[in-house]
Amino acid sequence: MALDAEFAKRLQRALMAEGEELFSILQDPAPEVLRTVLRNPRLKEEHLLALLKRRNLPEDLLKATYQHKLLTESHSLKVALAQNPGTPGAIVQVLLPQLFTFELLNLCVLPGVTADQKIAAERVITQRLPTMPLGNKMTLARRGTALVVGELLKEGDTRLMEICLNNPRLKEAAIFQFLNGGHATAETISFIARHPKWKSRPNLLMAILKNRKTPPIWYTLFLPRLRISEINQLLASRQLTGAQMQLVREALDKRKGKRTP
Predict the structure, then answer these.
(1) What Rg value do the Cα atoms of the chain yield, rounded?
(2) What is the Cα–Cα distance from 120 to 106, expressed in whole angstroms?
């Protein structure tokens, strides 16, 4: 009975408190108390922001927060709700397009964010890329996730190439895909071929040498590093130009000459 009376008192405080007292009530472990807080007419944006920092909120409470009138008026609350790992996916999908690009990027790297939230945020970012200003793309190329920087790399923009290649999250598979795609040019291939991190990757080296747009200088520099089996593999490729094929044949002839007593 005493316990019920104490709980009723907590509910009453949740409904009537204001200011600093509300902040302490927002730490109450009981979901019923927190739901009552949402009906408190003295509740302000800063109180809801403090509530949304909690990572153990039940789904129904987050749904109620989404429906609160304060959220419709506050961009900061929309960001905080989208970042909470307990927010239902359907609500996240509605909120993400309303966030700024770099708020989406921050969500992607936020500790504790769910995989679904990250994927959804990345999807919104990549959908914006075609119309995004160059300055924003440069920042994304520098700070973006593996998926985002991989999408930027696909554009083949020489102004972004080096920044993308220096991004520690960039995956080798994204570069390999770019080298085998339609946007690679002699200039962008050369960016990869001279990059200290990527130029020695065997799969990338072969992809460079199999590209019809690769400048002759890279055959001169890279062919001596290949095994004879790899040179033969290049000779069997139907992708090379006649001039490239001649460079490969000459490299093979030199190699065989060295092996001949």
Answers:
(1) 28
(2) 13
